[in-house]
Each structure stands twice: as structure tokens, then as C-alpha cells.
Amino acid sequence: MDQSEAILARFLALHPKEIDLSLGRVARLLGDIGHPERALPPTIQIAGTNGKGSTTAFLRAMLEAAGKSVHVYTSPHLVRFHERIRLGAPGGGAYVDEGRLTEIFREVEAANADQPITLFEITTAAALLLFAREPADVLLLEVGLGGRYDATNVVPSAIASVITPVSLDHQKFLGDSIEAIAHEKAGILRSLTPAVIARQDDAALAAIEREAARVGAPLAIAGQDWQAREERGRLVFEDGDGLLDLPLPRLVGRHQIENAGAAIATLRGLQALGVGAEAIEAGLGSVNWPARMQRLSGGRLPALLPEGSELWLDGGHNPDGGRAVASTLAELDERSPKPIVMVVGMLNTKDSDGFLEAFAGLAGRVYCVPIGSSTAARTPDEVLAAAERAGLAAEGCASIEEALARAARAAGPTPPRVLIIGSLYLAGEALAANGTPPQ
Question: What is the pLDDT of residues 368-393, one digit of tens each?
């Protein structure tokens, strides 16, 4: 076990709740460690329900293509905690190493002195301390949950805010309506700080616009001030400054055009950063974001399937995410028809019925598996019941490997297209089992 894992276990014991949205505890700790949140590189803050990780990945790729050093804070991780903290460097950054992570964890642990604080809050404080000490041109700060009371929202200023599509998720913490959730996401908006708003449900957009008017944040709204679309196999971006004719992004799926568009709109609004069309194009081609329609072409897991099969991985877990992935699967099937098989594991905090309904009539069979890395996982039988309610043929399995073996035995003359999906926890387990953790 890494030393950092032992410290994370101690952090987890500091508060009775894993999630307790508040800024008081993290603000107190940041004060005790010298207020690193006041000494950060120019910061772009990203909130939203779906697409914020992909949008962050596009921003990093484009900024790095322009020669910028970029710190990145994201969550959750897939295989190791280190993935949450990326330290920028000329020519490209890297995940924080074990020695440095352990050192910073020990420093914030000593300063906290066993006072109540959630795991996300104390690790966010540690990340901000690292980011303040290491020079970089830009910090990309992805919100963990919500926005208004998320620990990342202690930063006093930003050069831009981004809100990706808002949908129903985490209702227990954010509210049971699109309007309420959008209001919480809009808590990152700041006076005079430009904000890029991806395409939204009408009710979500109205809530965001109300908050923007209240705080005085200028908005650049998808479909009004900018748009990104596919035309003849190209990505066309258009805003008040003109039109860009670009290659399609490396990340698979029509929804990634919208995510790329939000990143482009953000950088076009920050002209002082000097990210031109050439860097934007290079970033679209180099972007990497694991477990977002990621094709697993090597490793242990694809070898369990018949020759000619495809194995895909996605961390989608809510109804809107399901619909986006289902649309992508349909596009793949139109270009190259194959029987579609799903391997699904989900958490009990997610709308399994709504998620799986997106795949009705598309997937031929669903293999339902457990998620060993989360105490909130649904059992395979619970996922199976949800799949059957959605009209999908399903059966339970003890593991991803067993599911793939069954898919191989059931395969007909045409090798299947297999998708592992339902949770980022499951995606992390798949990457670990495959021997291909994020780099």
C-alpha cells in the first residue's frame, strides 16, 4: 500500500459523512496553511453534471498545444488518487508523484490537527497548496459536487467560469429539480468574470441567467453567442469573432463536439492567453480523457473476447449520460454493425432505470456486475431488475471477467461490440483489471 493511501484512510475518519457541502471547514484549514487559494495561477473553474471532465480535458490539451503549463484538479479518480492532481510543466504536465503527494498530505494533516473535515475538503486544500507552490500559466479547477458549497469554490477569483450541461443527479445534495441543481452549479459565477454556458435545458438556463444577473457575470451561451456543430465530418465553431473549420475531436461521440465547443468558447474569450486556431486544432487531435467512450484495444480484457470484437469503456451513470452514450453506440452501429452487449454496474445513488432505458432496443444483452470499490454499489440482481424493467435481456455475473467470458460464449458469427458502463468506479476497476491505468 502507498503511504498516501494510509493517510487517505485517516482523512476518511475525520468526518462522519463522506459528503457534507459547506465552505466553513475548508476555509478554516486554508487559513491555517497560509491561504494558498489566494496565490493560485489564473484559474478557470468548471462545473456541470455531464461533460465537465471532458471539457476540462479539451481545455488542457488546447492550452498545452499553445505551450502553456497547466495545473489540473479533477475528481473522482479511476484507479489511483494521484489522477486528481496534475501538475503543469513546459511541454506537458504529469500526475503528482507519490512522494510529493504524501508530503503535502502530511502537512495538511498536521495543520488540521484531527478537526472534523470531509475527505474531499482536506484533499482539495492539499491540492490548492501544491498548485500555489508550483508555477503554472493556468489552473483548471473542476468542481466536485454542485458548485456553491463545493470545496473548490473557496477560490476568491477566476479568469473564467464554465458550466457544462446540467441534469438530474445528486438530488439528495443539490435539490430535486433541474432549476435547483442549476442554481447550485451557478454558485461558481462571479462578478465581471466571463462565463461560458454549454447547451442547457430551458429551466436550467433560466436559473443560471438569474444568478448571473444577480452577481453581474457576463455570459456566453451555447446556441446564442456561440455554437459548435458537425458538418461533413468536420467540427464547425462559430461565435462573434468568426468561424473555425476544425477536425472532429479525438474523443468519440457527438456530445464531445459540444464539450469541445465549450472549451473553444472559453479560450476564444480569454484572448490574453494567446490560444489560437492552430493550438485549438492540435488540442482536438491530442486530447485524452480515460473512460469516456475509450476503446480498449490492448490488455487483459479484450483478449477474453472473440477476435474482431470491440471493447469500449465509459463512466456514464445518469440518464442524460446514458442517452449521450446510446447515441454514440447507434452512430458506431450505423457505420459498422455489430451485436451490442453491455456490462453494467451501478451505484444505489443513481437512477438505474432512467439510465438503462436509454439503451432499450439497442443492446442485445446486459451482463450485470458488482462494483467492489464502492460501498454504495447496487447488487447485480438490483441492476438486472432495472435492466428488465427497461426491456433489456439481462443476467447477473460475479465480475467483469465473467461477463466478458459469457459474452464470448454467446457470440454468434459476427463478433460483438461490448461496452462496460454504469459508474466511474466500475470504469476504474476495468482499467485496473486490464492493466491500463490512466497515464
Answer: 999 998 888 999 999 999 999 999 99
Measuring CA to CA, how many Å separate 393 from each of 21, 316, 331, 383, 390?
A: 39, 20, 22, 12, 9
Residue where the block lists cell 476497476: 429
- Map residue 396 onto helix, strand or coil: strand
Query: 139, 73 in Cβ contact below 8 A?
Result: yes
Residue-range domains of the chain with CATH: 3-286 (3.40.1190.10), 294-434 (3.90.190.20)
How far is Cα 428 from Cα 377, in angstroms, rounded to an integer? 14
8 A C-beta contact, residue 295 and residue 418: no
Residue 175 confidence (pLDDT):
62
Residue 35 C-beta-side C-alpha neighbours within 13 Å: 5
pLDDT of residue 21: 79
Sheet of strand 226-231, all strands in order from the earlier edge strand to the far edge: 226-231, 234-239, 242-247
> Does residue 357 sit in helix, strand or coil?
helix
Euclidean distance between CA atoms 90 and 97, whole angstroms = 17
Query: In 3-state terms, what secondary structure has residue 367?
Result: strand
The C-alpha atoms of residue 285 and residue 317 are separated, in whole angstroms, by 26
- Kindly tell me the burial class for residue 133, based on how many C-beta atoms sit within 10 Å of its own C-beta (0-12, 13-18, 19 or more): exposed
Helix (H, G, I), strand (E, B) or coil at 66: coil
